[in-house]
Write a structure and sequence with these properties.
Elements (H helix, E strand, L loop, with lengths): L5 H12 L5 H8 L3 H13 L19 E9 L4 H12 L4 E6 L6 E7 L2 H12 L5 E8 L10
Antiparallel strand pairs: 1-3, 1-4, 2-3
């Protein structure tokens, strides 16, 4: 684990708010010289604390107006069954997140589709056909009031 101090935390918070901030503005925000700030950012990148930079996209403008969280239980609890299921989900463009979790189910998925009809197709033709799926429960997102995913 990389040792992070308060200045690193300030840098990370600022980059989470705006990953395109210039180094000069970032340095001013956190109270460092531009060269010291750049060295810290580069070290955070090199050590893997900063994994990359992304654009936050308005999915609705791309015709993706439907989101659901889906819990999935598998009929077999083997490493092979999990890997086969995960491979199938990696190939499905509707699946935006796959979380292997503990509890009464194995996975929680975040699924995005154009609309309910497109989700139904995914549910039946993709998820319903995925290896070793025993149970599927869908939780439809009605509104998102906070989302800090980048």
């Amino acid at each position: 684990m990389t040792k992070i101090d308060d200045l690193d935390r300030k840098i990370l918070r600022a980059l989470e708010r705006d990953g395109r901030v210039s180094n000069t503005d970032l340095a001013k925000t956190v109270g460092l010289s531009a060269s010291a700030c750049l060295r810290r950012v580069q070290e955070l990148e090199r050590s893997g604390v900063i994994k990359g930079y992304r654009a936050i996209i308005d999915r609705e403008q791309l015709g993706v107006g439907f989101a659901a969280y889906v819990t999935v239980g598998l009929s077999e609890h083997t490493k092979k069954a999990q890997r086969d299921f995960e491979r199938a989900m990696m190939a499905a463009p509707e699946v935006r997140e796959v979380h292997d979790v503990t509890g009464s189910i194995e996975y929680i998925l975040r699924v995005e589709a154009a609309d309910l009809a497109a989700y139904k197709h995914f549910h039946t033709e993709v998820l319903g056909d995925a290896p070793k799926v025993q149970s599927i429960t869908s939780y439809i997102v009605m509104e998102t009031t906070k989302d800090e995913r980048a």
